[in-house]
Design brief:
The protein is mainly alpha-helical. The chain contains five helices and no strands.
Length: 109
């Protein structure tokens, strides 16, 4: 018969988390705001310079910003950033409908 593998001297009691400190830690997450600003910058580059990779990066940044925001945040700003990035993608392909050619394709041809 085997001995009991539990070690009573390693038991640590759980301490309840203070709700205010947990909300304060969640409120300090700057990722959605950074992604929102990056999405705006990339979408402006995609619209003004007609750079397709920047337009796609703006769409990715706005999706990440939307996915990481809380429901209490301002949804108008997030929605406007998302619509701006979608319009950057659409306008860049309306200007030039050719697909994006990756740089490594030109190395082999």
């Amino acid at each position: 018969m085997q001995a009991d593998p539990r070690r009573p001297n390693k038991i640590v009691r759980m301490k309840p988390v203070d709700p205010q400190s947990a909300q304060a830690a969640m409120a300090e997450d700057p990722l959605p705001e950074y992604m929102n600003v990056a999405g705006m910058i990339f979408s402006m580059l995609g619209l003004m310079m007609r750079m397709k990779p920047c337009a796609w990066m703006a769409l990715v940044c706005s999706c990440v910003s939307f996915a990481n925001t809380r429901s209490s945040d301002d949804t108008k700003q997030i929605l406007s950033s998302f619509m701006l990035s979608v319009s950057a993608v659409v306008m860049s392909y309306l200007q030039n409908p050719q697909p994006i050619i990756p740089p490594w394709v030109s190395l082999w041809s």
